[in-house]
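Q: Could you fold this chain for me?
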Amino acid sequence: MAINMSITKLDFAAPFFKVEYLENEEKYFIKEKSLVFNFSIAEDEYIFVKTIPIYPLKGTIVENVAITQVKRALVVKDYDRDTDKPEFWASIKAAWPTLFSISGFERHKGIPYYKSPQVTVGGNRRINFCYAEPMSPSGRHQIHVPDFDEVHAQILGFGKMQKFTENDDATFYQEVIMAPGIVHDKFYDKTGYYPWHQYHSITDCIYMPIEIDR
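A: Sure. Below is the predicted structure, expressed as structure tokens.
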């Protein structure tokens, strides 16, 4: 049986980032330093860099190499090409609306977060890029509306995912440092339960929420 292969160019983060979504590609060569994220959720669907697997919902940085056995992947090509330009961060801030203007959530009010348009890939995975100014929390939350599973991937800069026992900074108990190519482990369990959590930038940074319908 023939397998339909596809490479889809996504423009949701243009002109700042060149993003492609891949499905069923046996071999895909990447020349420029790029981010690769395995968008499969099946536990046995690995992407390989030579003989080393990229596990489902994990990522890495590659250059001058082919990735193989791709079921579903997101590639951010030449991801850091413009970061040395003085106007880079200001241009993103001017182009993308604030997170609060989109969500209307009180926890987003006044925080310096900016959101690209959101797109759906693979049928049930919604993605966008968020820019956050340095040392800014996204706001603690526990429930997602609508109900979905979520992980975050780091695109540029550095940040951290934080967990809390309650909706109170004093109940902080765990932190995961985020660098380009990192996707944190799942915070949710099999029932979809989340602890209180938030993203917190360290530097100017771009991160990508990945929302997966349950």
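A (continued): Residues 88-95 form the longest helix (8 residues).
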